[in-house]
Amino acid sequence: MHPFWRGMLDLLYPPRCEACGRLRREPICGECSAAIERIRPPVCEVCGEPFDPRAQTAPKCADCRGRRRPFSVARSAAYYEGPLAAAIRRFKYHSQLVLGKPLGGLMADALGDGPAADLHAETIEVVCAVPLHESRLRERGFNQSRELGEVVAGAIGKPLLPLLERTRPTLPQVDLPAESRRANVQGAFEANLREVIAKQRVLLIDDLFTTGATMAECARVLRRAGAEEVRVFTLARPVPQWRRAGADARALAREQWVD
Ligand SMILES: [Zn+2]
Ligand SMILES: [Zn+2]
């Protein structure tokens, strides 16, 4: 766009930070970016559930002890709270597609030696986003997980492929009690491109990890279609109970990371 028209547009619709609403050129301003709480160890070695660093903990959470998950490991970049929660809502429900890049970038930054280091992205062969049902896709106009997946796939230099399809609409998992979530997504996905999936290590991408029921169902379908391994990577996960208890825990978690 010509700088003159860009200037006129900025006068009419000044660019704002999508998280705090202040006049800023970046989709997420510096202050909001800095306020996003990255997930720090210790976490469950399988599902990535963050542990209270003050509590003496086992390598696995109670949910992962004594049962096999269809995915080998799950990690998330940051907590679903504050500016990140605001930005995700703007991204998903107000179609602020401009947020795909910075939010996907937050995930890419969590790889390497960040909170998602255990995903060992260097040995991933193909990236796949959790699909939306076509009715939801039509209504929203885009799949937020695919937007995130594109950035992550680009960062690790692997293809993002539509390996899964959502064959029936499901209720939003957040609206359901934990015990109904598995039934809600059971049988809702089908594998595409089976010849591509066979014997591959797949990185499955979504925006939120709540109970992990959607991820487990997608991983199950991919494994059944021949995937060697499925690793799960989400942008955010809810703040655990122990962390909500107060700022003390927060400060302590931060200290743990620095060590
Ligand atoms: Zn801001
Ligand atoms: Zn776990």
Q: What kind of sheet is the major sheet? A: 4 strands, parallel
Helix amount: 25-40%
Name the poorly predicted regions: 252-259
Distinct helical segment count: 11
- Average pLDDT figure: 90
Helices and strands, in N-to-C order?
A: HHEHHEHHEHEHEHEHH
Q: Roughly how many Å apart are the termini?
A: 47 Å
Properties at a glance:
single chain, 259 residues, alpha/beta, Rossmann fold, four-stranded parallel sheet, two-stranded antiparallel sheet, 11 helices, 13% strand, disordered C terminus, binds zinc ion
Task: Give the SSE map.
Elements: H1 3-12, H2 30-35, E1 73-79, H3 82-93, H4 100-110, E2 126-129, H5 134-140, H6 144-156, E3 164-166, H7 178-185, E4 189-191, H8 194-197, E5 201-208, H9 213-224, E6 229-237, H10 241-244, H11 247-258
Parallel strand pairs: 1-6, 2-5, 5-6
Antiparallel strand pairs: 3-4
The structure holds zinc ion (2 copies).
